[in-house]
Amino acid sequence: MKEFQDVSRKTERIFSAELVDDNLFEWNVKLHTIDGDSLLYRDMVETGSKFILLNITFPENFPFAPPFMRVLAPRIEGGFVLDGGAICMELLTPKGWSSAYTVEAVVLQFSAAVVKGKGRIDRTCKKAFSKKEAESAYKRLVKTHDKYGWVTPPKAEG
What digits encode the pLDDT tens for the residues 84-101? Predict the structure, then answer.
């Protein structure tokens, strides 16, 4: 509740948050500000996308365990966005999470990562991201990084 109130009080509107069905454990976050020099920003202008819609689900033991965060819209390819809109960021995994992280810090980190990873709006696929796909991609991500660490494995290894 405190975290939601802190986010709601912000006057600087880099992002905004609202509860999903009045549930404190699930938020939809609208990321309004993306680096204006990025290709993603240009895609957003060209497609009329005013924000990136994220969904954050908090476990009951938050902040001692990471939230599950995924992109809902627009459909983004690259930029550390995986199947179903899952997000590949170490800080969103049990090993990379710190209870000191705030929602604001996580959203801002995603904003930087999606640009650094050269995320683009996928204009060819009209299919919406699904939560089931995102959860499956997240589990594969954690398994892969548990095996290899947080380096990109060679393409020959998948």
Answer: 999 999 999 999 999 999
H helices of the chain, in order, are 2-9, 39-47, 103-116, 131-148
Among 29, 40, 88, 106, the one annotated catalytic: 88
Judge contact between 40 and 119, C-beta under 8 A: yes
Q: How much is the pTM?
A: 0.86
Question: What pLDDT, on a 0 to 100 scale, did the predictor assign at position 158?
Answer: 45
Q: How far apart are CA 154 and CA 134, in angstroms?
A: 23
Phi, psi values for residue 88, rounded to 5°: -95, 90
Is residue 125 among the annotated active site residues? no
Contact between residue 9 and residue 16 where contact means Cβ atoms under 8 Å apart:
no
The residue whose two tokens read 């689900």 is: 57
Domains of the chain, CATH where assigned: 2-147 (3.10.110.10)
